[in-house]
Amino acid sequence: MTRIGxxxxxxxxxxxxxxxxxxxxxxxxSYWTMDSVGVRRCRMAAGGVNLMCAGALxxxxxxxxxxxxxxxxPGADRGAGLIEGWRAGHSSVPAGRLLFQSMHARSxxxxxxxxxxxxxxxxxxxxxxxxxxxxxxxxPYAGLVAVFLVLPIAWVVVWRRRRVRPGRCRRCxxxxxxxxxxxxxxxxxxxxxxxxLPMPPNQNQG
Length: 206
Fold this sequence. Notes:
Elements: H1 3-29, E1 33-45, E2 48-59, E3 62-71, E4 85-92, H2 108-111, E5 115-124, E6 127-140, H3 141-162
Antiparallel strand pairs: 1-2, 1-4, 2-3, 3-6, 5-6
Helix pairs in contact: 1-3
């Protein structure tokens, strides 16, 4: 690994560590405060109004991402539902768990807190839409923390392996004690200028 590559690797590892710490803080916060953020966009079309809503919320150790889009039904009460823009809010965490976490027939991934589901029909942003399509993804904070920690852990492992210890090869870490050949027998690196201990005197001489 080149020097620049090492700097980039280290910088990415530090950034990933920061994300892991932030995810850990969000994980703890999600047990007493439910945070939500969302955006709503509408577009006039020949057949009516197309509405798209996207948002995310955090609660009880889970991040839920929800996307809904579709054409509103002609008789839908649109009113304030067509107001575009970003929305954010905070509230106390409701009692119980998320709906899919309370289901008895759950898959292994759902038991681990991971879910991905899609469907059609129903509502878009609380407004009736027979052509609605929704996408829901639930991710556990624990999984996010684990993913963000992979790069810092890899950096520590590489750093420990590449750290030059006294009497060892700069390239492969081979023990060069008692080596007087001027070359690493493991990787062939010339070790001129790198200290190595001389051979001990032959005890049988004299």
